[in-house]
Design goal:
Elements: H1 7-73, H2 78-83
Length: 122
């Protein structure tokens, strides 16, 4: 004998299933928003950190340039310092230029070959 559920029981079961779906959607939406927020924060923090590192590097390079200038002012010549492996930090190393490849010879088209018969017939 099959038991019949009341209307209230059916609606309660439907509400429970609906609530489970809504809870899953809520969790998914919350997780997605957390990713969006984290990505935005990550990008901002990387930009800030890069600026900080760039500033630190500039300060270090400026100190290097001042130290080199102080060494020259103290009586060392730039040539002497170069012999010791201490180059002027204000000079930049030039990268060697690469030559562009030579233009390849133009490929002749069939029209340029004249009235030749390409099938061996004459």
């Amino acid at each position: 004998m099959a038991t019949h559920q009341s209307v209230e029981q059916i609606l309660a079961k439907a509400r429970e299933e609906h609530t489970k779906k809504l809870d899953a959607i809520s969790a998914l939406a919350t997780a997605r928003q957390a990713v969006i927020t984290a990505e935005a924060n990550h990008k901002k923090r990387l930009e800030d950190f890069k600026k900080q590192l760039d500033t630190e590097l500039k300060t270090i390079k400026d100190n290097h340039a001042r130290a080199f200038h102080a060494a020259v002012t103290a009586g060392n010549s730039p040539a002497e310092l170069r012999k010791l492996g201490l180059t002027d930090p204000r000079t930049t190393k030039r990268t060697p230029r690469t030559r562009p490849p030579a233009n390849p010879p133009a490929v002749k088209s069939a029209e340029d070959h004249g009235p030749e018969d390409h099938h061996g017939h004459q």
